[in-house]
Amino acid sequence: MKVLVAEDDPDIQVILKMVLTRLGKCEVTITYQGDQVVPMAKSHRPGLILLDVMLPEMSGFEICKILKSNPETKTIPVIFLTARAMPVDIKEALTLGAVGYLAKPFDPMTLVTQINEILSPLGTSIGA
After folding, report:
1. Confidence of residue 112 (pLDDT cuts 50, 70, 90)
2. In angstroms, how far is CA 107 from the centroid of its own chain?
3. Distance between CA atoms of residues 116 and 97, nearest Å
4. Which pTM does this prediction carry?
């Protein structure tokens, strides 16, 4: 599965790329710029987007809203992966159309399992 990761922390980018490539058997594309997510989603056609809330240029919430209102990208599952884990943030993300919300710091060894638990009701998974 192709996964688009929107994350501005270089260390977390490295961990996510390694985990998603090795354990998740995914093809991973990474951007750190919020304003690049929608164009990249249109051109790369990922099966999943992992989205941070706090990104340069545009917040994850704004990005999710745009993705879900666009016919080309509205069916792509979005999972937030962020340090902002207040109930109000989680509620906003899910209201905007995200399928899940994972808090940082995350455990790299259980990340694929957590993602698959979120994707399971959609009939899809990574790492298979």
Report:
1. very high
2. 16
3. 17
4. 0.97
